[in-house]
Amino acid sequence: MGKTRPSRKDLSEREKRGKLKDLDRVLPDRPFSQKSKESKESVEELLARTSALLQTSQAEEALPLALRALKWLKKERNGLTSRVLPALSLLAEVHLELGDADEARSYFSQASQIDPDGLIPESQGGGVEKFLWLAQLSEEGGKDSVAWFEKAIYILRNEISSTSDSVSKAQKNRKLAVALCGVVEIYMTDLSWESDAESRCESLVTEAILVAPESPETLQTLANVRISQERINEAAKALADSLTLWKDLPSGNEGVPDFPTRISLARLLMEVEMENDAMEVLERLVEEDDTSVEAWYLGGWCAYLTAERSKASQKSAISGGGNTEVRELEYEASLMSSRDWLRNSIRLYEIQDYEDDRLRNHAMELLRDLDAQLGDDKDEDEEDEAEAEVWESDSENEDQEMAGT
User: Which DSSP string do the residues of 29-71 spell out, in sequence order?
Assistant: First the structure.
């Protein structure tokens, strides 16, 4: 799927009540009624404002608006009707943005009870999106996730067969491919022990390629399956094809896969020894978000692997009587680059209280090896800091002297 389970970042009940109280001073509460056009417009306005805030990553500001809209909509018929679906969907998205997976799952579950077959149009808060999220957010995982994905797959297949609109069909095909690939990933991890796991993966990824042949995510999933089958050349080709689809597009373009999907792509590229391509992906990722611990870690590991490859080439050149000076420079440059990336990763890890012991342990192991090869440069860092302090002191003195004149 590409999207990862969000980390917890709960709002306290006091914060929620405080935000709602502040909102009440701006928008006075009043019963919702179909006969009251003013109230109906207010609910729609709240939903529109919530959506706008979400699009600008202002989830905390969006939360009280969505809660208020849900409260008013529930008053319409004293219960959960299909009219509350837009508010439930928005609240789930808000909590996803806030990192509260449990609350998001709760709202998606409520929506699935109101629209169990996904027959209500997406424009009214229905559709299959909730089933796709419930598959990803499932606490049980495994077969429970597969069941949610299969519900979405069944609905999408029916919708695709009954629509004649080419644009709508293409969108649904892509969504179907995402669901199919989601099941593949589960059978490659949680359910890999199942006797038919490999055959199911092959069948599902084949269908995904048929319905969305130009989807980067689908091609990545195909590559992942081929790697597991040790068909490395086919995996490398699928990854190269996936990368070609979006690498020249500007950031923010809808054709560019999301951040987690590109993190996964970098890992896969490294597995098939396409380190140069992986580093290009990672450099772009840290340009977009320079606080990603995983991106910096992978960049350091990728540069380390590049150095190892340069070292192997250097040995081959020595045995063949070739020129080794350039390879030696490339080797040292890759080592230094690796250390810089890994140090950034560890620094961010500590600042963010990141929770991934395996990542940290591997990064520290690599750093120890790099320090052993390059030498510990802490003394150089201290000298640079001392020089910077002297420069700042001199600048301050000059400013004071100019002020005195």
Answer: -----TT-HHHHHHHHHHHHHHHHHHHTT-HHHHHHHHHHHHH
